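Re-running the complex after MR caught last week's input typo. The corrected sequence lines follow. Everything else is unchanged.
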Amino acid sequence: MDALILDNIRKSFGSVRAVDGVSAQVPPGCVYGLLGPNGAGKTTTIRMIMNIIRPDSGRIQILDTASATEARRRTGYMPEERGLYPKMTLRGVLTYLGGIAGVRRDALERAIPQWLDRMGLKDWARRKVEELSKGMQQKAQFIACVLHEPELLILDEPFAGLDPINQDVLQDLILAMRQAGKTIILSTHNMAQAERLCDGLLLINRGRKVLDGPLQDIRARYHTNVVSLEADGATDFIAALPMVERVGQAGKRLEITLNAGASSQDLLAALVHRVHVRVFEEKSPTLHEIFVRLVGSDHGQDSQSRVA
Amino acid sequence: MDRILKVAWREFVETVRTKLFIVTVLLTPALIGVLIFAQTKITKRMTVGALPDRRVAVACADVELAGELRARFERHNQAKPQRRILLDLAEGGLPDLEKARARVAQGQVDGFLLASEGLVEGRGKAQYLSKTRNMADLDLPGIVHGFLSESATRVRCRRQGLSPEAVAALNRPVMVEQIEVGEKSAKPKDMGKAGAAILAPFALMFLMFIGIITSSQWLLTSVIEEKNSRVMEVLLSAVSPFELMAGKILGLAGVGMTLMAVWGGVGWAAALRFGVVETTLPAHLGYFLAYFALGYLLVASLMAAIGSGFNNLKETQGALTPIMMVFVLPMVFWPLLAQQPNGALATIASFIPPLTPMIMMLRLAASPKVPTAQIIGSILVLAASVPLAIWAAAKIFRVGVLMYGKPPSLRELLRWLRAD
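Corrected-run output:
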């Protein structure tokens, strides 16, 4: 059973169509990326998933239930607009948020110190939130949304505002949670990061789905049939090989475009006898390249003035 | 419900801990106490310690009148040695007005009385020259005038062959003791209790005003702070907007109750201490709580809705001013309302929901005869308005708390209300 199903959901704010007929399925136990440029409708989609705003039409099924309100106890959510009570102590605010998320007091007494320790915030437990750095606050925020041990974690721009070290800390945590069988949905506009982390993804632009599915499938679908080669020896003969359509130069490498239907393995076999192959790489396009190819170059600026 | 209570408890604890609350709750009664204490001390000092003498020059053409005046000033100085009025008396002819003016102007005397011939017979006017206009000496012309009149009366009596003492005895006022016949046993009232009876309606109304407005203001601030600290959406992932709003309203109701309990308790204790009450308060406590609960719910919903739509306190001023105006109205018109607690104005105002709690407390304290039907009726009207307010507030709150940027227009608010 899928952890999340979006079925043709739509949402408008006045005359602005924030989300326009998006459908997707998120299988359980994976890291799923919700990608798109600023203003594409990511946050609106996530807010609809969390039932914070209601879709104008369409159906959302989350953890086998019809709404996030029912699945709330099993879902952890870190919103994009995140903050903590500045005047409360770190421990106090976590106890409160854990409490309203339905965790028993004695369980919190155990879990909070463990999490603070794990995140390197142990010494800050009795400090006021306003004394913490932004990165620390964000880590505290993450703790707040996992205290009730949710099966499904929804993180809106989790890496925004973190330094590289803390980005790695968070990335490791996300992967550990997947290892433990949880489902993680995260939104980001950083394609490279999504590519490293995600098993599947949904790419949206201007409120519409551009593509979705497992990352491998997407890569295969947009496979370019280009091989990047670095080799010692005379390489003039390559252009004359039967499976080769065209040879280009990229720095000290060659970019070899194969004929449709040709196998890169045949090329490799033809090469190894005549040159010393140093690098042989099937070039698959980056998400960024796929995205640019699909939506053109008009995604540079915000797609729409944002409503919320 | 569990979540509502958790939200309420945090709201209560975090508010009660703030410096603002502690200052408001404790310092205000303390300050009033200090003021009362200081005032009684100072008043006592005035009666004990000596104040500087005052000098009055009197030029009196009538020798007999002059004698009476001298005697009157002496009696005064014997009775009040701590604040003597020294008399500089010249009998017979009057000095030149300019000379008298010069003496006053130079500050040799505080006042100069020119009592011309024929005053006793009722001809002409005396003249009193004074310069000082400081508070301490404002009473001096009145005192001198009184002495002159008294002395003239005594001279007149003697010339008519009457004993001044006998005339004074004839003029002695008749004493009346006022007894109010109420439902309870009639008791004589002294001045303190009469004063309490007059002020009790206002005090109750004021307490109601403070209780409702202060806790609603706190709610407004709290909602805006949650928006500003961006904690709103974190909360909304665990509780529904309605639960959040309900919890906040409940928690701050507790804050309001605490505030009123302390203030009301201090006021009550002070009134008992000075022996000015065994008043209407306990009898109306039940009504007070009922009106407070309903009135607070109404206003608090309004404030929650307002708070959700704005980004900072400054922006809310425009929306708050008209509301505050409405609430200040009973405070302005309270003497009128207290004089006619069952008049048309008071009766009509009792059925205007936001005003009901204040007006009804004023009426209940001012008159024992507020019709029961009106009490029940006003509670029903108020109670009916509360769910409506909460419904509207919840709708606005749900959308408003996630909006940042430009505050919504009235048209947008109506659209939010229509949204499902």
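None of the earlier attempt is carried over here. The first helix of chain B runs from residue 2 to 17. The first strand of chain B starts at residue 54 and ends at 60.
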